[in-house]
Fold:
Amino acid sequence: MGWAIAVHGGAGDIPLSLPPEKRLPREAGLRRCLDVGIAALKAHNHPLDVVELVVRELENNPHFNAGKGSVLTTSGTVEMEACIMDGKTMKCGAVSGVSTVVNAISLARLVMDKTPHIYLAFDGAEAFAREQGLETVEMSHFITPENIERLKQAQEADRVQLDYTQPIQKEVPKDAALADGDSQIGTVGCVAVDNEGNLATATSTGGIVNKMVGRIGDTPIIGAGTYANHLCAVSATGRGEAIIRGTIARDVAAVMEFKGLSLKEAAAYAMNRVPRGNAGLIAVSSTGEVAMLFNTTGMFRACATEDGYSEISIWDSPIE
Amino acid sequence: MGWAIAVHGGAGDIPLSLPPEKRLPREAGLRRCLDVGIAALKAHNHPLDVVELVRELENNPHFNAGKGSVLTTSGTVEMEACIMDGKTMKCGAVSGVSTVVNAISLARLVMDKTPHIYLAFDGAEAFAREQGLETVEMSHFITPENIERLKQAQEADRVQLDYTQPIQKEVPKDAALADGDSQIGTVGCVAVDNEGNLATATSTGGIVNKMVGRIGDTPIIGAGTYANHLCAVSATGRGEAIIRGTIARDVAAVMEFKGLSLKEAAAYVIDQVPRGNAGLVAVSSTGEVAMPFNTTGMFRACATEDGYSEIAIWDSPTK
Structure:
């Protein structure tokens, strides 16, 4: 046993040729978040507080698709979602359609702690944030030039598809259209366990670029992008629709329980059922194991365990 | 094998003393939906089309979906619905729908006409209009009974405050409702044809006096609604418990990973949920049916190709 923590900044078609000016800030971001999480665990903070703290850092970092730096809807707006869950009590909180709240994960935490509900969305979520005195800003705060450009390219790709008379309801192109090859299927997440086996998970995202207004993805769907129980805590990332159908986060725990698999085996089992190129996940178990799997080209990730091991990676080999 | 269909009109604290004027219209509603579903299956309609008969339950003001939906704390209607195809695992869901006559049909369009699974609030409403779905004034869905239910629920909250109970206490389990009429309802339908094609559909107004923007279990794939190659499930009850318990997904998972039959899996899953919180209807690819609940009752009906049929509220079938 012992504590363990894992963090992700999104899985997707991250090209091996990713230029340093895009790679280095994200590695630095993951490193800083990992350090924040490790310090919090060493100080005996509850995993719920640890995962919230780490995800807030990732939301504030404009290089990840959550909070500031969120991808844009087809109307050029920001609609953020987040979710948090406590493995021991199975209490959880989720929000969607958040456009002015600086840290959506903290709003999700308040839904869990301060209401009889699990999930609030859109105007109701925004109103609750104000009632609770959470920090809110103009929506423009979250919008970065990179994301305005990504939206433009995605809409251009759709137009090209129409010119070739492809059906309008075809899947949003897998980022092939993005000139810089920079995957934006991202999401951020953190899972943690302390040395008493208390587990928690938190996930936050802006969604997928050019999504329809009002589109909800896997992040706030308990059992899809986010899940924790007494066995493990899971945060998934990738193409939301595939993660929802695959009930990925729930399946990792279910397979551990009903088939007696280890965390690593269960995570591999769940991931194998998802079509290639669609997803990744991070998970920790009550006994301090860590699993970080993906079937995309890469996944921004980092982890550390009490025995001193730590890792920051994007593709298959750890960077450090 | 053979086709099978099950329908529910909500699980909850339905008192055995439910007066006839509240019981009979719901039994009649269930009976009519069952007949519609049976005819559709006999005519070889695909189960996805069959379960869309949830529209009938939405249109029936005696059930908590569509017309007859319970009200938010602001007296408004915010409906949700979800549909899933077991073979393809395609699914569609909507939340925060206030003017669309049949939310289940909007969920079907999200599944069929967009690259997404789930649309909510303004975005869902805009999509409905783009698609030419029938929309009406929100007042269409509001019934006097639900205005009364909201009033009683808010009164009960005020009483709780007078006794200095914490504000964030669970919404009272209907004990406060003077007529004892449970409103944890939802409606749903699951069906399988004789080729093993499975589908599920669920629709609801949510819980009475819910916060504006509150989403329950119905549109959450794996919680209130789920189908795969093994079974199709639609759950009802206290949404928050169904979400935590990932109920609909667990029925299929337990069948697959523990090798249980549909009935065993459904019973296993309901047993894990705190008493008084949930019920479900399910059918398997081989034509089995299960309708377990751990509440006082669940409005339900089912039929199988061998001629069996049942309409029930409490433990013994009504007929």
Remarks:
- Chain B touches chain A through 48 residues (CB under 8 Å).
- DSSP finds nine helices and 13 strands in chain B.
